[in-house]
Amino acid sequence: MNYVSTRGGIAPVSLEVAIAAGLAPDGGLYVPERIPVVDMTHPKATLAQTAEQVLSPYFAGSGLREHLSQLCTTAFDFPAPLRALNAPDDYLLELFHGPTAAFKDYAARFLAETLSRLREPSQPTTTVLVATSGDTGAAVAAAFHRRPGFRVLVLYPDGRVSPRQAHVLGSFSNNVQAMRVDGSFDDCQRLVKQALVDASLREKVTLTSANSISLGRLLPQIAYYAHAALDFHARHGMPLNFIVPTGNLGNALACWLARSMGLPVGEIVLACNANDTLPRYLDGEDYAPRATEATLANAMDVGAPSNFERLRWWHPDDAELRSGLRALRVDDAAIRDTIANAPRRHGVVPCPHTAVGLRVLERLRAAGDTGAWAVVATAHPAKFESVVEPLVGHAVEPPAALTAALAHPAHAQPLAADYAALRDHLLRGAGA
Ligand SMILES: *Cc1c(COP(=O)(O)O)cnc(C)c1O
């Protein structure tokens, strides 16, 4: 399988080149030349084995193919259970059982393993630069922690992530360094982008980014949709519909890919917060990205979802694209109401992002929908305790991995939202 750019400005490249580069040289996103169809009627025994089966066509002809089994075993070594909620046909696909309690752990671990395999032993240390509003930075830091040949620099907006998120980000020592930036998430992203296009810096420091548009993060996310949908189909003889809490559209695009590959995925509904670029477009308005608005579901605060460019590439025709997807907008008041009532209504305590998905399910049921729906639970509620605990009226116990990270001392270095300061820091660490 070869990979091309959504902007059409490059010759097809191998999977290795696409994963190592992140962004295509013409500024586009890498996409597979065609979407492979898999012939599967049952899941494999484990999530890792299903992952290997559905990802193998993307690895066909690549030097990475011989490592795929090992990549999947390492990245998919924690479960993604489909939990039944209170009402019949309501389910929760729990993707938060990894080391940093969010779904991004799967893809970050897969990408880290892949980049390790692609690395020559003689190469200088690679610095992984990440801007984060919380979850991405932690997942990437955990995935590269103590990994030979890599160091990680995480930039987060000081005072704008939850106290627990900040603690986790600062809890890694060794080859991971957290920088608390005196600015917004957009400032962090701008600093990272500036470093990545700074040619004279890149002559001295080997840099890569691990952001969500990387093909090495998009593809592995297909695995848990495939496993859940195949398992459901084998038991109930029908496809499973999904509600996906959406920000940058990476996770939902993987669900869409799973369906396009012939797996038994039914309808897909994107659950968005007040950042409603996608709901407005899918309802018939022109595609018009807007400035990002801060909400309770902060990991979904995206006004211009990057992966839309991939979806557009596969469906240049608006009507065709709109016929395969729906999206609904959920504001902060509705998020609060859903969290407060979820223990009684659904039998679970959700994180604010998962609550956006549950709210969409509540609306579909109120409109008379009787299908089988799985809401994707993207993070553990204990990570967002300052929002969740006052609404449900009791403490939420963190999972073991989070408790361990919170027990470590945390340290973050202050950084001005100024590119010269970051550049200086990178150059001083270049020999490390
Ligand atoms: C990143 C994130 C999302 C949004 O996922 P996208 O792939 O960007 O659409 C939703 N919920 C949580 C908890 C996240 O960390």
From TrEMBL:
**Enzyme Commission number(s):** 4.2.3.1
Domain named Threonine synthase N-terminal is located at: 2-76
Supply the source organism for this entry: Novilysobacter erysipheiresistens
Family designation: Belongs to the threonine synthase family.
Give the Tryptophan synthase beta chain-like PALP domain ranges: 93-379
Enumerate the Gene3D superfamilies for this protein.
3.40.50.1100, Threonine synthase, N-terminal domain
User: Which GO terms label this protein's molecular function in UniProt?
Assistant: threonine synthase activity
Under which name does UniProt file this protein?
Threonine synthase
Q: What is the lineage of its organism?
A: Bacteria, Pseudomonadati, Pseudomonadota, Gammaproteobacteria, Lysobacterales
Q: Which UniProt keywords apply?
A: Lyase, Pyridoxal phosphate
Q: Which cofactor does it need?
A: pyridoxal 5'-phosphate
Q: Spell out the InterPro entries in the cross-references.
A: Thr_synth_N, Thr_synth_N_sf, Thr_synthase-like, Threonine_Synthase, TrpB-like_PALP, TrpB-like_PALP_sf
- Does Lyase appear among the keywords? yes
